[in-house]
Amino acid sequence: MKCLKKVFFMVILLLLLTGCWDKVELEDRAFVYGIAIDTAEKQSEIKLTSQLIVPSQLSTLGGGGGSGPAFRNLSVTGETIIDTNREMIKQTSRVPDPTHIKVILFSEDIVKQPTLFKEYIDLFLREKDMRRGILIAVASGEAGELLSVEPQHEKIPTQYIGRLLETKGNLETIESIRVGDIQEKLLERESFPLPVIEKLDSKSVNYVGIAIYNGKKDQMVGLLKGDEAKGLSVLIEEKNTGTLNINVEGKSSTVELLKINHKITLVNNNPNNFEFKISLKIIGTIAEQFGNQDVMNAEVHDKFQLGLEQKIHEITTKAVEKLQKDYKTDVLELGPYLHHYHPKVWEQTKDNWEFGENNFSKSKINFDIHVMIERPGTINKTSDRNENRQ
Amino acid sequence: MKPTQTHGFISDRDIMIAVTSNIIGITTLIFPRVIAQYTSAGDGWIAILIGGIVACIWSWVIAKIASSFPNQSFITYASYLLTKPMAVIITTLFIIHFILVTAYQVREVTVLAHQYLFDKTPIEVVSLLFLLVVVYGVSGSRAGIFRLIVIFFPTVIVGLLILVVMPLGLFKTENLLPTFQTDFQGHMKASLSTVGTFLGFSMLLFYIELVKEPKNTPKMAVKGVMIAVLFSFLIFLICIGTFGNATTRNLFFPAFDISKTVELPGGFFERSDVILFVIWTIIIFTTTLIFFDLIVLLMMMLFKNAKKMNIILGISPLIFLLSMLPVNYIEITNVGRFLTNSLFIFLLIVTILLGITYKVKGGNQN
């Protein structure tokens, strides 16, 4: 009898174990996967587009039995992001769950306005459910539109955009920017690059170039595209490599960069007349040639190297010129370099680096480029004829 | 607990583990922020080193004094060295401090749980549940507590190693630069607050009584402090290297946020902080357990005839009420700072008093 009583008591205790205040069933959650922030018609308001995923649709899609897309986009306008987000609850049947946000897109209009970007990013760092690894990108045009592309090889647009931002192999892109990295930059008021993407058509998104965000003005001041973007990429990226087209004997060739090493040194530390030397050590391989050069020949090999060296010199000079003259923004990390390695010099110049005296724009930047073409690819040449192809 | 078990049931190793477990606690989560505030870039390591050395010496002195009176309770040897009334006053002050610290710990674990896990569960419920588990732990035998701490120890160490190793991929050495740019005042302040986070070794005053032959205990105690210093050192460097100084000083729980930064591939492991939350709960649990047990230990010294259960049941509601007193995060932070500072000064005075009289009167084997 005593034993029975004990068992009875335990069964009653079991009931207590089922309680959980913060329980939200998986089926009741609406996972927010991507967020796009646009300006609204009213000046002080923003338009927030969230991409919610529907877990059940996501799983059935593979079997072909799914009906409708695996995601749902909701757009709401409001004054602050969290306010807008709560407004969204009025429209969803589920509670939005931000734990797995992959990408945040800011429209160009927002990033170009002073301090707005900084203000909106606060939430993504403060909110407890947010990870610090959320990717950030600038959308050229309307950011919300990007979330509605229908990619053909991914199930969800955000997933597609996220992968796109993380893919390496093209010099016009930069390594993905995470929200956690941004906080340090914003606190130190350093400038940084941001990826810019646009909607190409209803099925694809295109990586446009690199936005230049000025940490002192707290706004995006410019955009680098094409060769300029490549130049910047060569100067600041280490993991992200890609190809460069060079001209050898009048024929186009492409060299793939395998490894880029860079090192900054300060040559002259007079604040009004800074001189930096950026040493680049680049290892490449011949990826494609239209001509029929004998790449096994040492002279030809030198020609390729010289061509690549000139090309790199050209694009980096272009990029640096634009940054110094037009944008007056240091995303080359020269300021942080001074701060880290020459703290005394930095103390003198830090208030006049990107504004005021503009020591960054006045400083002289030299390149010391070492190129080595390590591998020729698998073949020597495709055709042997020495004719001119049109 | 049988009366025969009151002395000599724990080993030197247990003391070492208990010291480490008691030092690594809620302050470990917060201290990178405090130190980053006072120092520039990665310079805080100097402060941790200085603070660590001070803590090692200090703990050695305390352990040395306490181990010169083998199997004697704190109140006995304190009465012998100072006077009986002084010993009673010191013990009472320690009891008050430990009650406040336990309440603070209970509240902080709730804050942490609220910050990262629950939104709607009332603070009272989380606190109460945590406190009930602690009470359950304390009401058993003291040997059981030490055994529990020893069992948890490998888990805690592995957890902390995971915490330190996982973000290495995001570690940027540039964040530690420029070196040696902190002024003297900054170093001083940072070193002082580092010593403040290591004050958990104050338990040595009371627990060495339980060691059978406390000959090697001072050495082991210092080893325990050293393990804690080592982990603090690593956690600080990882925080600065991953976040940079400016971010570290702006995060409330930097040591916890590093686990949020790491993303292992695969949807589930995208949130590796979940696993580390368990580790942190264990860490705070062991710290709270020790503090609560110290209250009981000291109370029983003062009131020889009191029953252990009565003390526990009398104290628990008080702790619970105290832990509910602070209304917001600012007050909690202030309470934490006050507790550290007051213990710092108090422990310093006690150590000096005991040290001087010990030099004069010498140890007592009876």
Features:
heterodimer, A: alpha/beta, ten-stranded mixed sheet, four-stranded mixed sheet, 13 helices, globular, B: mainly alpha, disordered N terminus, transport (chain B), transmembrane helix (chain B)
Describe the fold and architecture:
Chain B: Belongs to the amino acid-polyamine-organocation (APC) superfamily. Spore germination protein (SGP) (TC 2.A.3.9) family. The complex is a heterodimer of chains A (390) and B (366). Chain A is of the alpha/beta class and 390 residues long. In chain A, 34% of the residues lie in helices and 30% in strands. In chain A, strands 1, 2, 3, 4, 5, 6, 7, 8, 9 and 10 form a 10-stranded mixed sheet that branches. Chain A starts with a helix and ends in a 15-residue tail after the last strand. Chain B is mainly alpha-helical. Chain B has a single domain (3-346), classed as Amino acid/polyamine transporter I (Up-down Bundle), CATH 1.20.1740. Chain B has 15 helices and no strands. In chain B, helix 3 (44-67) packs across helix 8. Chain B is globular. Chain B starts with 11 loop residues before the first helix and ends in a 5-residue tail after the last helix. In chain B, 49% of the residues are buried. Residues 1-5 of chain B have low confidence and may be disordered. The interface between A and B is medium-sized, with 21 and 27 residues.
Structural class of chain B: mainly alpha
- So, CATH architecture of chain B? Up-down Bundle
* Secondary-structure element order of chain B, N to C: HHHHHHHHHHHHHHH
Binned strand content of chain A: 25-35%
* Total count of domains of chain A: 2
Please give the share of residues in helix of chain A. Answer: 25-40%
End-to-end distance of chain B, in Å?
24 Å
Number of helices in the DSSP assignment of chain B:
15
Shape designation of chain A = globular
Number of strands of chain A: 14
Query: How far from one another are the termini of chain A?
Result: 102 Å
Beta percentage of chain B is under 5%
**What is the helix/strand order of chain A?**
HEEHEHEEHHEHHEHEEEHEEEHHHHE
| Helix count from the secondary structure assignment of chain A | 13
The low-pLDDT segments of chain A are 60-66
Total discrete domains of chain B:
1
CATH homologous superfamily caption of chain B: Amino acid/polyamine transporter I
Please summarize the sheet with the most strands of chain B.
none
Largest interface: A-B, 21 and 27 residues
